[in-house]
Request: fold
Amino acid sequence: AQSVTQLDSQVPVFEEAPVELRCNYSSSVSVYLFWYVQYPNQGLQLLLKYLSGSTLVESINGFEAEFNKSQTSFHLRKPSVHISDTAEYFCAVGLIQGAQKLVFGQGTRLTINP
Amino acid sequence: NAGVTQTPKFQVLKTGQSMTLQCAQDMNHEYMSWYRQDPGMGLRLIHYSVGAGITDQGEVPNGYNVSRSTTEDFPLRLLSAAPSQTSVYFCASSPFDSPLHFGNGTRLTVT
Reply:
């Protein structure tokens, strides 16, 4: 079975500061890794994914995440956050076969202060 | 494209009542699923379907039924609502081996 732990339930940062949202996973088999973002009163949107290849993946809005197999981590980073990044962020894992049956972490609420 | 459409957006039920949460997608996705979201617990898989006529249980299936008579629709039924089913419910769909597309959710309160 797979499990995901997001190490911080809430992360407050100031605008234009860097941020890291931590995600660790556990699995006995190879998995795909995802970060989803949920803006207030909306559904989840895919932010970025790691399927294979380069361990550093990037999103179109400046976030990046690095897959670290030895540490079983997939931390999300952004060098300079904006007010519009305020949201809840979910890390998730899925089996390579049957990747849609995602297991989610508990979520990290990112709050950006001006 | 509408994507994944969930109705209703909000619902209040009394204990013991039944209802159906609707989910429809217009992307011809084979895979559809239902999750519930509770504070501090992330999202947990309730039921999923890999195609019309095929459904299976996820992590927390008790108290919920599903059916998949068409590719487009995947309703979730609560036969006898309980306060423990107060939650936000998300429907999602995808092609196989592709990331999920989520609906905007149904917020259900059971009193």
Remarks:
- Chain A touches chain B at residues 4, 6, 9, 34, 36, 41-46, 49, 90, 92, 97, 99-107 (CB under 8 Å).
- Residues 16 and 80 of chain A are 4 Å apart (CA to CA).
- The mean pLDDT of chain A is 91.
- Chain A has no helices and twelve strands.
